[in-house]
Structures are given as structure tokens and as C-alpha cells.
Design a protein that fits this description.
By secondary structure, this protein is an all-alpha fold. It contains 3 helices and no strands.
């Protein structure tokens, strides 16, 4: 990543500060779930289906963590 927040080395200093990362996670999440829905929902036990579901959950959890930090944790820290 090329932004200042993403070039830092500590995970908690990056999370919730980079709009570019959140945009990429959103696109990856939508693409992953879209691929799963259109191609693999009929075969939920295939390895491809399981891999897409796991990737989709990982993208969603990381995006949720970004949004939680951006809209709840960081604004609360700023008020102190």
C-alpha cells in the first residue's frame, strides 16, 4: 500500500485509518460472495466452495474490524 498508515508496521496503527484498504476489502468481499453464490452454492461441500466461504468470512471480519475502529473506537479516543 502506498498510504502513510499502511506503511507502518504495527497492525493496530493501520486498522480503521485507510480508506483504500476498506474499499479493497469491500470489493473482495462482494466478489468472493458473488462468485460463491453464482457458481458454488449448489455444491457446498466442494473444496472450491469451502475456500470461497472461508475467504468471504475472512474479508468480512477484517472489514468489520476496520469499520468498528473507524466509526466507534477512533472517535471515542479523539474525545478524550
Amino acid at each position: 500500500m502506498s498510504c502513510q498508515n499502511c506503511q507502518q508496521h504495527w497492525f493496530w496503527k493501520k486498522i480503521g485509518r485507510c480508506q483504500r484498504c476498506m474499499d479493497q476489502l469491500t470489493v473482495l468481499s462482494v466478489a468472493c460472495w458473488g462468485l460463491w453464490w453464482f457458481f458454488f452454492r449448489d455444491e457446498p461441500k466442494s473444496i472450491e466452495s469451502i475456500a470461497l466461504v472461508m475467504a468471504g468470512f475472512a474479508f468480512n471480519v477484517l472489514l468489520a474490524l476496520h469499520l468498528l475502529m473507524k466509526f466507534i473506537v477512533l472517535p471515542m479516543r479523539g474525545k478524550k
